[in-house]
Design goal:
The chain is an alpha+beta fold. Helices cover 26% and strands 24% of the residues. The strands form 5 sheets. Strands 1, 2, 4 and 5 form a 4-stranded antiparallel β-sheet that branches.
């Protein structure tokens, strides 16, 4: 343990890797269904059935702190924690983040990615692509001896270069046999500051960038978080392990990353 942070063995990381790959598989499976006219509730049902019946895993979000669904679907100005609904119908030009977590043999896998519903606006595309690059920049900082501040600074630098803001209320987290373990990965910061990384640490990096100001507000449902100024928001998330040589992404998406450069 490092300041209460769990250090995983090689066997532990193998279990986390298995769970992470299952979570990533869900995001690959659901992609063809993310089209105009589909409800976010339908997407949730498809993901639930796949996790339970195909993967033989457990949907980690169902019942977590009272959350009612399998996935989180955050559309356009929704920053995070959007609840799937039969009334939320995707339309052309929408951008949506789907966040999924599974439990396999007691280990959690957690990842999210953005989808375009038809052709996005120029701003929406640039926001989504910049957010991906910010996540990628943060992941590439991960290695023994680096700090959490190095990760946050790298993410923040990419965001600000694109003239986007970084959401500060939500962050990455340690993960393993507990969904949210001790260790908070802020998506802003200063180089050299914060916890120093060690081999065996496992955590998520999941920046949320807004096209407008960084301030957010939570809706009365107690979950859905939106931008205060109603500007677009985007998020990508990977689970990462610190290795002796650097890092390993534990949630690689099936089929690669499309037009995006690999991490």
């Amino acid at each position: 343990m490092a300041r209460g942070v769990s250090i995983k063995s090689a066997e532990d990381i193998e279990m986390a890797r298995r769970a992470g790959r299952l979570a990533a598989e869900v995001l690959g499976m659901i992609e063809p269904y993310v089209v105009p006219g589909v409800s976010t509730d339908t997407l949730d049902q498809i993901c639930h059935d796949h996790i339970v019946n195909v993967q033989g895993a457990v949907p980690a979000n169902v019942g977590y702190l009272g959350y009612p669904k399998t996935i989180l679907t955050s559309v356009n100005q929704v920053v995070c924690h959007g609840i799937p609904s039969p009334d939320k119908i995707l339309k052309k030009g929408d951008i949506v983040n789907i966040d999924v977590a599974v439990i396999k043999d007691g280990w959690f896998g957690d990842t999210s990615r953005m989808y375009f519903v038809g052709a996005p606006s120029v701003l929406a595309r640039r926001l989504v692509e910049t957010t991906y690059e910010a996540m990628r920049a943060g992941i590439r900082q991960v290695k023994p001896g680096a700090t959490l501040g190095d990760i946050g600074h790298a993410i923040q630098s990419v965001a600000h270069r694109g003239h986007f803001s970084v959401v500060r209320e939500y962050c990455g987290h340690g993960i393993g046999q507990v969904y949210h373990e001790e260790l908070q990965v802020l998506h802003y910061g200063q180089r050299g500051e914060g916890l120093r990384l060690e081999p065996g640490m496992v955590f998520t990096i999941e920046p949320m960038l807004n096209a407008g100001k960084r301030e957010t507000r939570q809706l009365p449902d107690g979950w859905t978080v939106v931008t205060k100024d109603r500007s677009l928001s985007a998020q990508w998330e990977h689970m990462v392990a610190v290795t002796p040589e650097g890092y390993e992404v534990l949630t690689p998406w099936p089929g690669g990353t499309g037009t995006y450069a690999p991490v």
